[in-house]
Amino acid sequence: MNIVMMGAQGTGKGTVAGILKGELNIPHISTGDIFRKNIKEGTELGKIATKYADEGKLVPDEVTNAMVKSRINEPDCENGFILDGYPRNIAQAEELDKILEEKGTKLDLVAYLKTPTEEIIERVMARRECPKCKRVYNMVLNKPKNGEICDDCGVELTKRVDDTEEKLKTRLEIFFNETEPVIKYYKEKGIVKEEEISISINRLAPEAAKDLIDSMRK
Ligand code: ADP
Ligand code: ZN
Fold first, then answer.
1. Whose CA is nearest to atom 16 of ligand 1?
2. I want to staple 132 with a disulfide (CB 3.0 to 4.6 A). Which of 42, 88, 153, 192 is the partner?
3. Is-catalytic flag, 36?
4. Does the pTM of the predicted model rise above 0.85?
């Protein structure tokens, strides 16, 4: 199964992808996580990415495409993958088609997670991360047991540098202008499955993941 997760910031792409990974036994590839890891380790890729990522802007396509291509061609992607955070514009979507065509495969499913915008802002502002194990918490939806301390490591949680209102605004603008057209591109191919994720209707990541898995088993 070759799967792409789509949806605005904070909709739960990473959480749903984590559940799908466990069920399907295929890797979860988050381009944001790969960039953040490279930034933290100070690699050449990280030095380029930090200039864009810190401001909530997209890293240039040449850099991102090359990174994804090499990742998808690793042996653990032989039986499929779950891409999270890529493609984010039409040029990347066309590049992904090319990468997969060269491998003799194609996308099976695009999982599109939809959350009301007010909820997105609230959720991203409440997001915290363990600097040690990278576990993601949410001070509204899934709080740690004590204060802002990681349940597993006992260290203080941090906020992502791009999780400020100003930078979130930039990121959402890019989503609506550049990434939504990609969803339309996939809808025309007939491979999109939409999942509503919202506290207002009490439907969160586990339900969405279950529905996606059921749809794949049909
Ligand atoms: P977001 O919460 O805004 O979706 P991510 O964690 O997915 O953020 O990505 C963090 C940052 O990494 C982005 O703001 C961007 O700078 C970079 N990035 C991630 N994926 C891509 C991509 N497909 N194309 C360009 N830049 C990307
Ligand atoms: Zn931790």
1. 53
2. 153
3. no
4. yes
